[in-house]
Write a sequence for this structure.
């Protein structure tokens, strides 16, 4: 029996070939959930079906069409929060009366940030302009834009576009509305484009399994959270960066990851994942080019603000250091159920939660060390999607904040890591349902909301579901024969230069597996291994 750690022999330096439609995996043939869902459309794909003959409806376009439908539903879900009413003085006001954002479950950060970040002021510019916080308990009342540079500039540009729209609307050429409603709709339009890019890039990366991108398109998390905040920008940069890496364009991948890090910090985790994989494969030069372009891109975006508006640029990092544990973190679950206040103590607003920050850092670094161990001891080098999912999931599970829209980060990575529709949809449904008790918890018991226990219970269930997916990924890493991607004959579709590359470094580990290669030929046990 051939060693399960050795794929079929191919030239590792050859360019990836284009798969014919007949070589693609049809989930309706293999996944019972997809097979059942396909019955209204005629059932699973037949053995002799003509595949790839339609002039327009490719798997990619079907996925994008479904994503458009899901994004429209998401917009309708948030639209209740941009309705207006006429007050007693005859002025139009945003209708957030009687806890509408929580009762209608339409809350979006985009709406309150329009005024709280002073985007409604035409004379402000992110990181340069400051304002005084209204809270009398804050030690330092001077505030600046609190988002990373790409996200902050994205909000400012949308505010300027909203102002231009209203200027044209005043002349009668466009429909008029409240400024915040126009701003929300413009922002939602660009966030929708960003999520479509995420779907497109994920579908192009999966290669033999293009239909798996449908999970990214119709995820319940898309229906709830695409317009909750601005995270679709980072998911788009990350997904296209992974696509560029899979096409063996490390410089382009670095530029895109650098833009992603300048929008949200989590794409930086992928750079660490690539380092571990390239270390095992002896591809550190390629990784170095990606890392160099990531750093250069981040510097190009950030250095002007560091030099001109240092304090405003630092606001994002300052607030994250000062931020206490959020209600959606496991630390809050522990503190609420046990009554222990050791994480934050009796801190006043503005003081740094030192103990909590140290615990978060230690736990996450321990998870990173574990991921490094898995990478270097697995019988076959893990796929990029598998390690990327583990890294981001570990970050979220150990972090002191898990804002609801952060779950969008996991969606495309989960599809690349575990193309199993039932467990993925199960987790996505559970994660999306956390929104319901969250909204009614924030509504408050005095206003017929839910007690904290209901919300914390769903948070625990969500975290257990994510942890369960991590266990499934680890099982498939150590048992490659259970990995659906590798069962179909692929090695690492997102791996780029790592796809079917030889191992150059591997540590003895799980079950005492002997050192093997993941390249086109089996390496002699007596042949020394090293770094190239």
């Amino acid at each position: 029996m051939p060693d399960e750690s050795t794929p079929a022999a191919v030239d590792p330096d050859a360019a990836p070939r284009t798969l014919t439609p007949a070589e693609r995996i049809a989930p309706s043939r293999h996944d019972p959930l997809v097979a059942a869902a396909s019955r209204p459309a005629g059932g699973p794909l037949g053995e002799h079906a003509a595949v790839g003959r339609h002039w327009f409806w490719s798997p990619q376009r079907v996925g994008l069409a479904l994503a458009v439908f899901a994004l429209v539903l998401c917009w309708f879900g948030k639209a209740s929060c941009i309705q207006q009413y006429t007050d007693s003085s005859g002025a139009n006001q945003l209708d957030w009366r009687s806890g509408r954002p929580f009762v209608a479950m339409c809350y979006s950060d985009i709406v309150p940030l329009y005024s709280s970040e002073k985007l409604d002021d035409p004379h402000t510019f992110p990181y340069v302009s400051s304002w005084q916080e209204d809270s009398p308990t804050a030690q330092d009342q001077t505030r600046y834009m609190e988002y990373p540079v790409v996200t902050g500039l994205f909000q400012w540009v949308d505010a300027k576009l909203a102002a231009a729209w209203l200027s044209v609307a005043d002349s009668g050429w466009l429909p008029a509305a409240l400024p915040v409603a126009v701003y929300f709709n413009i922002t939602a339009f660009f966030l929708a484009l960003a999520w479509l890019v995420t779907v497109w890039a994920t579908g192009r990366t999966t290669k033999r399994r293009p239909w798996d991108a449908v999970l990214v398109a119709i995820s319940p998390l898309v229906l709830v959270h695409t317009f909750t905040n601005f995270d679709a920008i980072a998911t788009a940069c990350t997904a296209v960066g992974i696509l560029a890496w899979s096409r063996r364009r490390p410089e382009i991948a670095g530029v895109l990851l650098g833009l992603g890090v300048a929008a949200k910090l989590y794409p930086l985790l992928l750079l660490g994942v690539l380092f571990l994989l390239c270390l095992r494969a002896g591809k550190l030069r390629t990784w170095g080019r990606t890392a160099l372009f990531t750093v250069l891109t981040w510097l190009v975006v950030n250095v002007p603000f560091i030099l001109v508006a240092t304090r405003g640029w630092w606001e994002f990092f300052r607030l994250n250091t000062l931020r206490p544990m959020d209600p959606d973190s496991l630390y809050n679950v522990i503190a609420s159920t046990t009554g222990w206040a050791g994480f934050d103590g009796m801190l006043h607003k503005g003081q740094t939660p030192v103990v909590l920050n140290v615990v978060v850092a230690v736990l996450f670094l321990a998870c990173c060390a574990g991921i490094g161990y898995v990478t270097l001891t697995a019988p076959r080098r893990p796929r990029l999607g598998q390690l990327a999912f583990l890294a981001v999931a570990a970050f979220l599970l150990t972090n002191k904040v898990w804002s609801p829209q952060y779950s969008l980060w996991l969606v495309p990575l989960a599809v690349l890591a575990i193309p199993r529709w039932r467990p993925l949809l199960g987790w996505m449904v559970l994660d999306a349902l956390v929104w319901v008790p969250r909204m009614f918890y924030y509504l408050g018991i005095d206003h017929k909301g839910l007690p904290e226990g209901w919300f914390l219970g769903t948070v625990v269930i969500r975290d257990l579901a994510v942890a369960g997916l991590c266990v499934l990924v680890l099982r498939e890493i150590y048992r490659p024969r259970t990995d659906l991607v590798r069962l179909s004959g692929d090695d690492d579709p997102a791996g780029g230069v790592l796809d079917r590359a030889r191992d150059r470094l591997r540590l003895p580990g799980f079950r005492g597996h002997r050192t093997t290669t993941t390249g086109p030929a089996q390496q002699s046990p007596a042949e020394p291994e090293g770094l190239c």
About this structure: Strands lie at 84-86, 92-94, 131-132, 142-143. The longest strand covers residues 84-86. DSSP finds 22 helices and four strands in the chain. Residues 57-508 form one domain.
